[in-house]
Each structure stands twice: as C-alpha cells, then as structure tokens.
C-alpha cells in the first residue's frame, strides 16, 4: 500500500431491502434480500459498537425503508449512547403515529427525506405509490415538530429535472436546512432503466445554472448540495471518497461492501459481519484492498495529477461500461472510451424521441429481476 | 405558515450557538476534536475550536472577542476581524446559529 490505512469515518447501514416505494433508480442491487435474511437487533448493535471502536463517527440508517424495522428506535438509541452521529434516510411514507417522536427521543441527530417529485403526481408516479407525496409532506412536518433537522433529497432524472426550481421552493417551505439535488447514478436499478431516466443535455445545463443561482441566493438560509450527472461530466466523482478509504456500507444480511454496487464486480467476493469482525474485514478483506489507494491504477490514472482527488472515479461504472473494474471511470475525459458516455446519452435521447416507445419503467420489486442484467 | 428565513449577519450583539444538527465531539481514535454535521465532518484547528466552544447561546460576539483577545494576549481589532469572518462563514453554511 502506498499510504497508511485510515480508520473508517462513515458507515451506511442498509437495514432492510423492504420498501413501500418502487423507484426505478434504486441503488439497491437487482437481487433484493427478503426480510428473513436481515440481521437481528443484537447483531446490528454489535456491528455498530465495533464500527464506533474502529473510528466511525457517523452512521446513515438506510434501506430499503429503514422505518420498516420495528427495532429502529433501539438501534438509534444504541448508536446515540455511544456518541455516534445518526442520520435517518427515509422515504417518509407509512411511518406510524408517534414513531418520529420516538426516533428523536432515542437520540436521532438528523433526518433525510426523499421526494421523487416536487409535484404530487410526479412523486406518486416515480415511486409507484399513490398518495405518497402527501404522506411525505406530513413526515416533514412531524420531523420539524419533533425538533429534528431536515434534509430534503431529490433524485433527479429526465422526468423531474424541470421541477428543480419547485424542489427548492418545497424544501424551503418545509423548513429544511439542506437540499440535495442528486442526479441519478446509473448503477443498480438505474442502470436497468438508463434510457428512460437519462436527461437531455439542455435540461442538464439549465439545471446547473438554476442550482448555482439558488445557492448564491440562499447562502445562510438553506444549503444546497448538488450531485451533477456524471455521464455529462469532464471528471469523474471520487466515488465513496475513494474505494475503502474512509467509508463502507453494510447490506441487510451483514455483507460489508466498499460501495452500493460493489457486488456487480464479479472478480470480488465479499465477507459478512459475524463470521468475521468488522476490523478484520476493513483491514484484510481482499475485496477492500483490491482498489484501495493508487497502486492498483492503470494509465491514464496512474500518472494523473488528479489521482488522489478522483481516486479513479467509480469502479462499478468502469466495470459496467469499460468491462474492467480497474479501468479509468469512463466519466473522465481522459478515459480512452470517454466518447462512449456521449453515445449512451444520444442512444437514450433517440429511444425517448420515438413516440411509440414503451415508456414503462422496470419498477423496483423483489423478484422482478433474479439475475443481474 | 413559516416565516421566510433570512441570512443572518454577524454583529457584536449576535449570540451564536451550535444548531441541533451540529456538535463538537472528541474522537479518541484520531485524538482530535471533530465537528459532526449531517453529511460532513470537520476537523477544526485550536483557534476555531476556541471560537466554537464559546458559541454557547449566552455569550455575545463582543464578549467572545474580548475573551479570546485576553486569552491570546492579542489586539482586540485583529481578533474581532478573524472571529467575525469565521462566524459569518460558519453561519452561511448553517453550522452556527446567530
């Protein structure tokens, strides 16, 4: 290794794959785990304590829909007692009366609520859940009433990119401290639905201008984090801040991964918490060490002055588009196959321009896809 | 209806505090103080920490400046400029409440 191994600082816990929504860009894998594969309460609590011992300061409780876990209050309380900062990432539909208050009571630090659209019809259609928008508004109000700080998360794609100004107004009206305008990343279900989701070039440019102006206007009022769409980018994103560099995630059955989509890299095998300690997995797992640091890099990454800024970009995108997980992320203009990104954008535009084209999404459901596409 | 929020501007009368979603915590693993916020973790230097620790919801900015000037045996004007710039930046990121 070219640099010393750092302790992890952040952890994403996917407590369950169960979810009342069926968003066609879900970052969960195509093969969703059923409830009987989920870790029990005590195992999650043990895992959280080991994570804190290892140096994790922040845990993002996610899913699926994490509030479907009846023990969520207990999990939050366990983390809170250990001083770990907790962030609940929820779709905000179907949360029983009194539970948000119970999460706050248990020590929850922050709540992140997703909106699939700024308009009710969009939210309900993208999540394939009637009445979802109204329930989300209610969740936001209850979170604020319980004194919880609030982030609104807006995953952006072709079908809601024109709603960006309305998302900004919505987040302001709900009293959010933070808004994430996060363009969909093409992994998981989003890769399956890529042609349906890909925005138009003009819309992407307009969006960037709108967000830049809003950030300026709302300085000191609301923070806006912007995740631009990387098919349109010049440089790749430093995915996860670098592979296994300071963060990791855990799937509902306790499999420890460097990122959401890592299981799409067929040469790697991943280990589960339980049979092995978290410290062992973080330090010694061959999958974690596969793309750590810069030693694994090929050209043009190896000699690039940005190699410790981008960390080579996304390994899973390199796998999906270049067919080689150790290649430069094709989102990078220096990648020899960067031109393929523009071709994929154009292909999606052509597909969308054909009026007879079936506009149906492959909605996220357990059992819809049994083999990775 | 919620009142429309406005950007807060630091004045000597401002009484800064840390909002609920921000906290200072000692990290025994890295032997340093971390500032935890929703998506980001900051590692403030000693001077920043000295300012943040005084954001207790009781002390005015004027009082914080006088206190730090005495502690660092420094000119009040120089300290004032640094403290005001720091607090304005942190307020603009919603990490400090004024």
Automatic annotation (TrEMBL), chain A:
Query: Which reaction(s) does the protein catalyse, per the Swiss-Prot or TrEMBL entry?
Result: [PQQ precursor protein] + S-adenosyl-L-methionine = E-Y cross-linked-[PQQ precursor protein] + 5'-deoxyadenosine + L-methionine + H(+)
Q: Where is the Radical SAM core domain?
A: 5-222
Q: Extract the GO molecular function terms from the UniProt entry.
A: 4 iron, 4 sulfur cluster binding; cyclase activity; iron ion binding; oxidoreductase activity; S-adenosyl-L-methionine binding
Q: Which SUPFAM superfamilies match?
A: Radical SAM enzymes (SSF102114)
Q: Tell me the cofactor note.
A: Binds 1 [4Fe-4S] cluster. The cluster is coordinated with 3 cysteines and an exchangeable S-adenosyl-L-methionine.
**Pfam families per the record?**
Radical_SAM, SPASM
Q: What biological-process GO terms show up in the record?
A: molybdopterin cofactor biosynthetic process; pyrroloquinoline quinone biosynthetic process
The cross-references to InterPro entries, in alphabetical order and at most eight, read: 4Fe4S-binding_SPASM_dom (IPR023885), Aldolase_TIM (IPR013785), Elp3/MiaA/NifB-like_rSAM (IPR006638), MoaA_NifB_PqqE_Fe-S-bd_CS (IPR000385), PQQ_synth_PqqE_bac (IPR011843), PqqE-like (IPR017200), Radical_SAM_PqqE_MftC-like (IPR050377), rSAM (IPR007197)
Q: Where is the signal peptide?
A: none
Looking up HAMAP family in the UniProt record yields:
PqqE (MF_00660)
Instruction: Report the protein's function.
Output: Catalyzes the cross-linking of a glutamate residue and a tyrosine residue in the PqqA protein as part of the biosynthesis of pyrroloquinoline quinone (PQQ).
How this chain assembles, per its entry, is: Interacts with PqqD. The interaction is necessary for activity of PqqE.
Could you tell me what this protein is called?
PqqA peptide cyclase
From TrEMBL, chain B:
What the entry lists under Pfam families is as follows: PqqD
Q: Which UniProt keywords are present, listed alphabetically?
A: PQQ biosynthesis
Question: Which InterPro entries does its entry note?
Answer: PQQD, PqqD_bac, PqqD_sf
Q: Name one GO biological process term.
A: pyrroloquinoline quinone biosynthetic process
Superkingdom of source = Bacteria
Question: Is Repeat included in the keywords of this UniProt record?
Answer: no
MF GO annotations: quinone binding
Pathway(s) this gene product operates in, as recorded in its UniProt entry: Cofactor biosynthesis; pyrroloquinoline quinone biosynthesis
How does the annotation summarize its subunit structure? Monomer. Interacts with PqqE.
**Protein name, please?**
Pyrroloquinoline quinone biosynthesis peptide chaperone PqqD
Lineage summary: Bacteria, Pseudomonadati, Pseudomonadota, Alphaproteobacteria, Hyphomicrobiales
